[in-house]
Amino acid sequence: MKELSLHLLDVAKNSVAAGAKHVSITLDEDEDGWLTIAIADDGRGMAPEFLARVTDPFTTTRTTRKVGLGLPLLRLTAEQTGGSLSIDSTLGVGTTLTARFQRRHLDCPPLGDLPGAVALLIQGSPDMELTYRHTTPKGEAALSTAELRDILGDISLAEPEVFAWIQDYLTEQENEAAVDASPAAVSEGEVQ
Ligand SMILES: Nc1ncnc2c1ncn2[C@@H]1O[C@H](COP(=O)(O)OP(=O)(O)O)[C@@H](O)[C@H]1O
Ligand SMILES: [Mg+2]
């Protein structure tokens, strides 16, 4: 996938498919270009035998297509940057997935449209509780559906106006917090 936001959306959809009522998404960037993405859900979880082969492309519980590609591709993308993917899961309790990327690596995809991905996710599952937090050395972007619900009262999170509001709200914060992690920016900077 061309952007990390698309991986994020794809993986969060696994949480939705697993029946999660709460999903937490955190992105943490440090001073050295390492980005850690963690997605935790309270969905149905996976049995240990299944979990052991879930990053193998032939593992899926979907019936529409014989191979599952989301997790194998995410692992590949993370490893291509020198990072990794790890998944903890307990049947009936939930799943936590942690992916590490080196953003300054030439093969690391750009972050992409994170506000768009979060807005889509909320619109697609308006009754799920989602918390989102992206921290960088410069600041943070954060949103929670519980807070939105307090503000909006009876208005559904699936409303188009809410979608646009979430996008604008997060875009403003993401712009403030953004760090340039491109390899070119770094080779001119403090590294080397
Ligand atoms: N968060 C999760 N909770 C429970 N099961 C999961 C979760 N994420 C992935 N899975 C299981 O792993 C399988 C493979 O996931 P993935 O690689 O994204 O492929 P796909 O979603 O196309 O099947 C899914 O079909 C599902 O059975
Ligand atoms: Mg999937």
What is this structure's SSE topology?
Elements: H1 4-17, E1 22-29, E2 34-41, H2 48-52, H3 70-80, E3 84-90, E4 94-102, H4 114-124, E5 129-136, E6 139-144, H5 145-152, H6 160-177, H7 183-187
Parallel strand pairs: 1-5
Antiparallel strand pairs: 1-2, 2-4, 3-4, 5-6
The protein binds adenosine-5'-diphosphate and magnesium ion (MG).
What is the domain total for the residues? 1
Order of helices and strands: HEEHHEEHEEHHH
> What class would the helix/strand composition place it in?
alpha+beta
Estimate the strand proportion: 15-25%
Question: Looking across the biggest beta sheet, what order are the strands in?
Answer: 3-4-2-1-5-6
Instruction: State the name of the first-level CATH class.
Output: Alpha Beta
- Radius of gyration, rounded? 17 Å
The name CATH uses for the topology is Heat Shock Protein 90
Helical coverage, percent range: 25-40%
- What is the general shape? globular
- What is the tally of helical segments? 7
Quantity of strands, as a count = 6
